[in-house]
Amino acid sequence: MPKISAIIITLNEEKFIGRCLESLKDIADEVVVVDSYSTDSTEEICRNHNAKFIRHAFEGYVEQKNYALTHAVYPLVLSLDADEAVSDELKKSILKIKEDPQCDGYFFNRFNNYYGKWIRQSRWYPDRHLRLFNPSKGKWIGPNPHDRFILNPGCRSGRLRGNVLHWTYSSIEEHADQINRFSTIAAGEYFKAGKKATFFTGPIHMIWSFVRSYILKAGFLDGHIGHVHCFISAYGSYLKYSKLRRLIVQAGKTEKQS
To answer: Which of 41, 60, 101 is nearest to 77 (CA)?
Structure first.
């Protein structure tokens, strides 16, 4: 029976990490936590759960997760974020896979809790991710902060029943703050990749993002909270491309002056 290494990257995750680690009991044969020098009780909680705790300077989400893979001992890796936990149904599915894995990687849905409410519509459900895989058969790619694991060409993937539970934002302010941070990171990544943005790119992406999530994907069925998260997420698209546009303009001015 193949064993499973669970990997988690952390930074000041004392609020969530205990629940995450508890959910890995009975399915993970080792837990590897790669921490970006937390200053809260994250390390203490991880060590109390017998996790392998490794400090590593943060270079980016993709880079951090690929680094974590180098410390996984076993042939199957289960990757979780600190604010996630494995549901009981997903746990049963993973235990069956341990008995006889047929694929190189497995997708399952992520069920997101926003401001105390489970989001069942919009683009947030089913929020499918490949999180259980043979690490030799693929790698994490970007652009940051939107990391994802992809399998090499020719590899076989499957899908598991059950959800990974994800506690996203506890307040509107927290969501807005993270959207601002993430849009800055994404704009920088897009700029390095040579992506373009005009004056209209930001507004167009914002409108399309809201229409797709709130109307086409029925985000309105989640009530007021559905409206809030769809709108703030759409505004994040506006910020990302507007910040990219600013970087392009600034680079043009610098080039003219030199």
So the answer is: 101
Write the burial class of residue 92 (CB in 10 Å: 0-12 exposed, 13-18 middle, 19+ buried).
middle
C-alpha to C-alpha distance for 147 and 232, rounded to whole angstroms: 20
Give the angle 34-151-80 at the CA atoms, nearest 5°: 30
State the pTM of this model. 0.89
Beta-bridged to residue 150, according to DSSP, are 139
* Distance between CA atoms of residues 67 and 139, nearest Å: 10
Quote the CA–CA distance of 201 and 206 in Å, as a whole number. 9
Place of tokens 């990544």: 189
- Residue 247: C-alpha distances to residues 29, 189, 240, 242 (Å): 46, 11, 11, 9
In the CATH scheme, what is the code of domain 4-167? 3.90.550.10
Which residues, at least 6 apart from 2, have a Cβ–Cβ distance to it below 8 Å?
74, 75, 76, 98, 101
Model confidence pLDDT, tens digit, residues 47-106 = 999 999 999 999 999 999 999 999 999 999 999 999 999 999 999 999 999 988 999 999
Q: Is 55 helix (H, G, I), strand (E, B) or coil?
A: strand
Q: 201-210 and 223-257 helices cross at what angle (nearest 10)?
A: 160
Longest dimension (CA), the chain: 64
Rg (CA), the chain: 19
Helices (H), 136-197: 172-192
